[in-house]
Amino acid sequence: MKRLLLFLILCPALSVHAQLNGMIDLHLHAAPDSDVRSVNAFEAARLAQRHGMRALLFKNHNTHTASLAYLVSQAVPGIEVYGGITLNQAVGGINPLAVRLMAETTNSHGRVVWMPTRDSEHAVRKSGGSSYVSVSRDGELLPEVLEVLDVMADYNLGLATGHSSPEESLLLIQEARARGIDRIIVTHPFSASVWMTPETQRMAVEMGALLEYPISLALGDDEIFDQFVKQLRLVNPINVALSTDLGQTGRPVPTDGLDITIRRLIAAGITSTEVNIMTKQNPARFLGLP
Q1: How many CA atoms lie within 13 A of 243 on its CB side?
Q2: What are the structural domains of the chain?
Q3: pLDDT at position 175, please?
Q4: What is the pLDDT confidence band of residue 14, given thresholds at 50, 70 and 90?
Q5: Is the C or the N end of the chain the one with fewer CB within 10 Å?
Q6: Cβ density class 94-104: b for 16+ within 10 Å, e for less
Q7: What are phi and psi of 160, to 5 degrees?
């Protein structure tokens, strides 16, 4: 923590953001939500637009965000806004119809399907719970998961593995690729809710997936930040898409968190080229943007 405080003192121009121009945030939370959020979607988009960011992807654990993205895009010109659906219990779990209707929402702002997150069998069992959404049984994906993947292929949607187990994530990547889905990302693989080893992360990359590293996992004391950088170097930044996963109360708003973390990453030896790959090229690739 002392190192972070010193860093902030030595970088007094924090009101002038680092080069966020052209960057894309693949994972942020904003109101309206059933969780309390620090900013609403319009405020988040205005902040991002003000700092020259290219695009945002809104995530909600309980409802799809394609409609929200459409409304924000109408109110905040100058930034691209996208949404998706998370297959938790609130939308019926592994629900092909919900995925199709999200994809057909006005102006096609729905781009991504997250496999179950808070309600995933992997996450719930780890926490001792018993009510969850399964994606596999006996080492094979469930038939309804295959149906969802077919709908995704039909609508050219990207796949995020959610809080699936490392083994399930590899199954999802393999089957998604077999069904013509080529935009795949492993959701925060080294977080406590997933915990995929660097070796397995590299295997996921070899199978055609990107790795999502939310900078929310880098915010905190020096040990936390150093672990984040270590993980980046173990998997090679060129395989990573940085996101924020911010919007929680008591934490920086997404643009501030991104700015602070990028400054610290560069100070830690991550190159500007690597930052651009992680915040511009790879996120654009995942969203299917030119």
Answers
A1: 27
A2: 2-7+20-287 (3.20.20.140)
A3: 98
A4: very low
A5: C
A6: bbbebbeebbe
A7: -115, 135
- CA-to-CA separations, 284 to 57, 164, 184, 188, 269, in angstroms, rounded: 11, 24, 12, 18, 24
| Mean pLDDT of the 127-156 span | 97
Q: How far apart are CA 133 and CA 128, in angstroms?
A: 14
Q: Measured between alpha carbons, how far apart are the two ends of the chain, in Å? A: 39
Nearest CA-CA partner of 120 in 61, 34, 199, 186: 61
Distance CA 275, CA 190 (A): 19
**Contacts with 117 (C-beta within 8 Å, 6 or more apart), sequence order:** 61, 86, 88, 123, 162, 163, 187, 193
Query: Cβ(161)–Cβ(200) under 8 Å?
Result: no
DSSP string of 42-104, one letter each residue: HHHHHHHHHTT--EEEE--SSS--HHHHHHHHHHSTTSEEEEEEE-SGGGTSS-HHHHHHHHT
Please give the average per-residue pLDDT across 214-237, as a whole number. 96
pLDDT tens for 159-204 read 999 999 999 999 999 999 999 999 999 999 999 999 999 999 999 9
Two structure tokens written together for 234: 């173990």
For 266, the token pair is 């560069």
pLDDT tens-digit readout, 110-138? 999 999 999 999 999 988 999 999 999 99
